Amino acid sequence: MADYRRALAQNVKAARRNLLLSQEALALEAEIDRTYISGIERALRNPSLDLIVRLADCLKTTPAALLTPPRGRP
Fold it and tell me: Could you tell me if 63 and 56 are in contact, meaning their C-beta atoms sit under 8 angstroms apart?
């Protein structure tokens, strides 16, 4: 089974960087603490489905895209 927490971490970080957003800017837009974004990006946090949907909206992507393992990695 794929490591979805790790996939989410990598995809959130990549999408955030593509939009040139800091962790703080994303946290403000998503209405969560910046340290929680950091925890997600380090695969330490297990965000709720509601938060994944909110992050996807802020990052101009879909929840499915955030949970899809990057190519070449299971």
Answer: yes
